[in-house]
């Protein structure tokens, strides 16, 4: 079972969908703005919550466009730093469509309905084959928690009109902060090499929606909208969460075969 059991109402729809309108993104500030030498308190305030997230379990509703096709699905996720993940695609009935587990650099993906298994592969490679976004567990945790990147370190900043600020990161890219009505700084978006992340903030412990666009070199861009519900943070997740029992007769499957099955197995 996942950190949130299959009883959580969610079903993965594994069929290509008709084209849908892309959600409107944030109007992020452009240009150089004005120097913001005293940015540190703003950055600390905006990232304090997401930096404190060490474990996260939640229900995910995923929509988007990958490899020229649309996808829609639901899953449950359990993440724990460093490097642990359980991602389970839940079907409307019967066994899960897939179960991805990793506890370190090596991951395993079980396809219970096909009785196939991908072994000894990086979690980032399996996630890229499943949803078109190449992320490791710690990167996914940072994105869902609202930090854009793991342990972001600021090197400088600029201010803009409308209560916006851009903070440059030591790892490359930047995050965009905005003041709310109470003048508190909130992290609203970020850019990293080959990736853009935007957030819809809610009242929960993590952003309600993360919109992720991935632009790999020489490949078709992938864009996902990930809605997060029933999020629990910093609840201990045992070692059994990040393990899966593989039937002895399960047949081996390569990452290439998994990728050829389409996003979330839509072609299977």
Structure description:
This protein has 268 residues and is mainly beta. The protein contains four helices and 15 strands. The chain has a 15-stranded mixed β-sheet with strand order 1-8-9-10-11-12-13-14-2-3-4-5-6-7-15. A hairpin with a 4-residue loop joins strand 6 (107-111) and strand 7 (116-121). It is elongated and about 60 Å long.
Radius of gyration: 19 Å
> How is the main sheet built?
15 strands, mixed
Secondary-structure element string: EHEEEEEEHHEEEEEEEEH
Ends distance: 23 Å
**How many helical stretches?**
4
Helix content: 10-25%
Lateral strand order in the biggest sheet: 1-8-9-10-11-12-13-14-2-3-4-5-6-7-15
Strand content: 35-45%
Q: Determine the structural class based on helices, strands and strand pairing.
A: mainly beta
Query: Would you identify the regions where 5 or more consecutive residues have pLDDT less than 50?
Result: 1-23
Round the mean pLDDT to the nearest integer and report it.
86
Shape: elongated
Count the strands? Answer: 15
